[in-house]
Amino acid sequence: HEQRMPKVVIYTKKYCSFCYAARALLKSRKVEFEEIDITRDVGLQQQVRQRSGQRTVPQIFIDGHAVGGFMELKKLDAAGELDRVLGGKQ
Fold it and tell me: Which of 3, 25, 56, 80 has a CA that sits 20 to 30 A from residue 42's CA?
């Protein structure tokens, strides 16, 4: 049977270089993700802050688990852990 891919959600704001870098990294790894732009939605910004405990963007969630921002994503990838977290996707 086909392996279920984890759901990746990235919360971003316009004009955010780290958001751009996180999207580029995920795309380079052929990871499908849902992007939610919270630039003008204060309520959504507060929800993301409560879920992640962080005020910065991007905020990346894999199957509902807060991974962090771009630097944390980059560290996971550099350590070879991103594939494991995503279920072994190459």
Answer: 25
CA 60 to CA 44: how far, in whole Å? Answer: 14
Residue with tokens 């958001």: 19
Confirm whether pTM is higher than 0.85.
yes
CA–CA gap between residue 66 and residue 17 (Å, rounded): 20
User: How much is the mean pLDDT over the chain?
Assistant: 91
How far CA 72 is from CA of 40, 41, 62, in Å, comes to: 25, 24, 13
Tokens encoding 68: 């962090």
Instruction: Pick 53 or 86 by higher pLDDT.
Output: 53
Record the tokens describing residue 90, joined without a space.
Answer: 């190459």
Alpha carbon distance 6, 31 (integer Å) = 9
3-state secondary structure (DSSP) of residue 36: strand
**Integer Cα distance of 90 and 83 in angstroms:** 6
The mean pLDDT of 40-57, rounded to a whole number, is 93
